[in-house]
Write a structure and sequence with these properties.
276 residues; mainly beta; Immunoglobulin-like; 6-stranded mixed sheet; 5-stranded mixed sheet
Amino acid sequence: MKKLPIIIFVVGCLLTAWACSNDEDMDNTTEQTEVDENTDGETSEPNETEASPVVSFYSVDEEDTVSVTPGESQTTQAPLLITLTANVSNPKNYNYVCEWRIWDTSNEDGEHSPLVTRFDEETTYTLTKSGGYGIKLYVTFSLGTDTIEYESEQMTVVISESKLTCPDGFSPNGDSINDQFRITAQSIVELDAKFFNRWGKNLHSVTLETAGRVEGEPDKLILWDGKVNGKYVSDGIYLIHLYGRGSDGIEYKIKKSISVLKEFHENEESGGGSTE
């Protein structure tokens, strides 16, 4: 009979130890829950169903790839190939449809009368006319009867007006000064140039696609290095026929004589160059 109080005492101790262990586990669970739910005192929320659209293109002016995001504007030259990327965020896996609209900002109807509409998440388009272009992305998310509409702020790309001029000659003598025949070409979307000798023989032809670019001078195009079949032409007078069409529709038709003077050097006095 004396063993019963001892058994009761042992059972009581075990129950007390179990209760303390449970309380400690609950405290740890509560602390962990508070850590999980709080970041600087705020509950962590999933990303919203939305998009982060961007218009990107290679800018001759910047000599780099430029990105335009909602609310931003960028001025550049034509022809301009732009890439439209939606960057849709959809954590709840809604069905969705993207719609890009590009419009002329001088049009009072704006995005309601777009020049082009595309329904791809990523697409491209080439701007060839001067002026301002507004761009917006619309995304419609749907899941059962639930629908969410997303509309971006306007992104704007401005194409500058055209300009085309050319010099009276060049000196391809390897001194890194005026070694190439370079023209100033801003927002020129079509170009055709032909060089002739005094007897009318076509020596060299170049287009916008085959013209060279001058590093650090985005408005400059290289049309000729003064060579025919790998050899420099003789010093003298040559003729250029240059046709260009600007992004603003202006056509340039230039016919003029140009001088090739290999023996001319920058440090010589004006008129001091010699010919072979």
